[in-house]
Design goal:
The structure is a homodimer. Chain A is built from 15 helices and 2 strands. Chain A is mostly helical. The first copy, chain A, has a two-stranded antiparallel sheet. Chain A is globular. The first copy, chain A, starts with a helix and ends in a 23-residue tail after the last helix.
Chain lengths: 367, 367
């Protein structure tokens, strides 16, 4: 236990707060059972990710679900949230970097939307405060929705008549509820429902204190032990198994050398303009990671054991055997939950044609 | 009845076969009831669209459903069948013309995939024989999937390890089942399950002989009467309410003048190189038409009453009042069925990263 914690300290550079589950070593007497040790750094998922500021209401989540899947509010009518966050690929798109409106390439890999609302910031560089902020700003993102301004985006929504009543229900009492803020709140409320508990939560939640029998396979238990002892859990901690802090990618060696990546992404330094933030990224959640290849902010690595091996080397200075990397990858497989039904099933959208150019809310004159 | 049939004859130019429900006037004695008259030209949907040549097996349809939703087999990893045939928009994309791989613009509007297998040909110009042929050829379509050749497309499939067992199950006994033909057969089998019976089928299937009470509203019954009497049902006939013949768009006037369309699409003449086929297109099915704006092969019209008015004028020389166009549009609304559950719900896809360039089935060497 101490060995792991020292490694945590020497890894240094923990810039954010480790989410939810502070590391408590005081109570550990001797070598604790795997479950007890896991509970010190890892935590089960909550039922949803609503907060007092951003509550999950049925009306908001239902509206947000429709907006999430609707491509008609982008500059070319093809970019929806679901374009890069596909249900069938566990909320990712299988690409190294996603293509947004008009085939514009996004600079970084599309992370899964599942459990995304759990994270302490959104986007790889943490330049979005939460899922609401992320959804709102994506309306104008040059490589995402590409609207020239919020007014154009809202006019596109208003041009589909079925949406106004849904905004009115979700945001009662507001004179003009079709706003960029409410777009963000509705999609955020929907995303705050997308929790994917897995067999690992069964293991953590076990009442016997020994882990639910059969919840994990022997290889997964071996992998969990190695995940903790290698030091992975120092950053990939809490209910998200990550998503709670920033960290430098490449503490003990350069990531672009190791991954063959052809770009040196400055990461958070581009946001803060502080050279000390070079190569700093948000630590991603590892929930469902077995289903979300390719890996890393640049999507440069195709397989999970390879990603595990590289992370151990670059972040912890550890050289994993193929067996160790395989066991840890096996453990990560038990973080795969079920795709929520309200994500797998596409909502039926209010009908209406995409508004190609200027807002068109008026019936064309008889031509 | 005779007035309608004369109009059918004078409209002329029926080049294909009217699907399934031949017009029988011999048995009509006096003014028939609306149901009886409707049954002479329109027909209920079958349960599925399997044939002895193209059977629907569970294994093929399940595989085809996955392939339909998977974007990783296109040149840029973004184009799947579902990119332009979204469940939430009833198997269309809301666009005048769809954008395929690398934002390439397709020349014609994306028709719904629902009930598409019922049609006598595929594509607006009928240059695809059936849904199997359409799916196969889309792999190479410059503006759809954009693969340089079938070998590249098949290599992309084989690079996702989870697919081979599914092809083996769907096409047992074949040494190398991952072929373009089987891609087409699997997606075709899936599409042959996508039937959307509606309240209109309840009306047609009624055993009492008077139409199921309450199946249609008064406005819908008025619209059906006008749909038949105006002559719409001469081409929009059979179980698809269309989809069974070719017809000229613009018999009594030029479509591009009436619709404001900026291109003169030569239609089927580009396929046959016969000037007599100029402006000839497949008559589309009107199933679910209320949910699939915008309209026509060029997506030039945004609303259904406007589309009805234009069709009556250009095809039948009839000038409809707003009330008549509204009633016929109301009738068309009763052709809206439920989106099938196996289309609304996205299948979970075998995991794996998109193969960006050359086929990559080999684990990258330790880097």
């Amino acid at each position: 236990m101490m060995a792991r914690f020292e490694r945590f300290l020497s890894a240094g550079l923990i810039l954010g707060t480790i989410a939810s589950a502070p590391i408590a070593i005081a109570g550990a007497a001797g070598e604790p059972a795997l479950l007890q040790e896991a509970r010190q750094v890892l935590a089960p998922l909550p039922h949803d990710f609503g907060t007092p500021e951003f509550p999950v209401t049925a009306e908001r989540a239902d509206l947000g679900r429709k907006l999430f899947f609707d491509p008609r509010f982008s500059s070319d009518g093809t970019a929806s949230c679901s374009r890069c966050h596909l249900p069938g690929l566990y909320g990712t798109d299988g690409l190294a970097k996603p293509h947004g409106n008009h085939d514009k390439l996004n600079p970084r890999n599309a992370p899964t939307i599942l459990n995304a609302a759990l994270q302490f910031k959104a986007h790889w560089r943490g330049d979005r405060e939460n899922v609401e902020d992320q959804a709102k700003q994506s309306l104008l993102g040059a490589a995402s929705f590409g609207n020239p301004d919020f007014a154009t985006a809202m006019a596109r929504i208003k041009a589909v008549p079925g949406y106004l009543p849904l905004f009115q229900k979700a945001f009662p009492g507001e004179a003009d509820p079709v706003t960029p803020e409410n777009w963000g709140k509705a999609i955020g409320a929907y995303e705050r429902t997308l929790a994917t508990p897995s067999r690992f939560d069964d293991f953590l939640n076990d009442k016997t204190g020994n882990g639910k029998a059969g919840a994990l396979t022997a290889a997964e238990e071996r992998g969990l032990r190695k995940f903790i002892d290698t030091g992975c859990a120092t950053c990939h901690s809490g209910p998200g198994i990550g998503g709670g802090s920033f960290q430098k990618f490449g503490i003990t060696a350069d990531y672009w050398t190791e991954t063959g990546s052809d770009a040196h992404d400055q990461g958070r330094a581009d946001i803060t303009h502080d050279p000390k933030d070079a190569y700093i990224f948000k630590v991603p959640s590892l929930r469902n990671v077995a289903m979300t290849a390719p890996y890393f902010h640049d999507g440069s690595v195709r397989t999970l054991p390879e990603a595990v091996r590289i992370m151990a080397k670059l972040e912890l200075g550890a050289t994993l055997s193929d067996e160790d990397a395989g066991d840890i990858a096996a453990f990560l497989g038990c973080l795969t939950g079920s795709v929520p039904a309200n994500f797998a099933e596409a909502p039926i959208l209010p009908p209406g044609a995409f508004t190609q150019d200027a807002p068109n809310t008026v019936e064309p004159s008889k031509r």
